[in-house]
Design a protein that fits this description.
The chain is built from three helices and five strands; from the N terminus they run E-H-H-E-H-E-E-E. It is an alpha+beta fold. A five-stranded mixed beta sheet has the order 1-5-4-3-2. A hairpin with a 2-residue loop joins strand 4 and strand 5.
């Protein structure tokens, strides 16, 4: 699989506190091997999926910190990182 992150993802990633960035990096090690690994609690975001006309998922990084992504063929596209508020952006 290939991985591509949006500019929005990177902007919000760099705004995170240092401890959150470390949690995100630890989750990335799992995510790059399998975005659906049970340790990430990957789940479908129904409202975003319906709005975008594609299946959109989120993984839990820690507490209320999530990453939203979707599959585009063999490319995993990360859309955003943040609290549940990102589901409505």
């Amino acid at each position: 699989m290939k991985f591509r992150a949006s500019e929005t993802f990177w902007k919000h990633f760099y705004d995170l506190r240092p401890a959150q960035k470390e949690s995100a990096r630890a989750a990335w090690k799992i995510f790059k091997n399998n975005p659906f690994d049970s340790r990430l609690r990957t789940h479908k975001i129904h409202r975003l999926s319906a709005a975008l006309g594609r299946t959109v998922h989120a993984v839990e990084i820690e507490g209320d910190l999530h990453v939203v992504f979707y599959l585009d063929g063999d490319v995993v596209r990360t859309v955003d990182i943040g609290t549940h508020e990102i589901y409505g952006r």
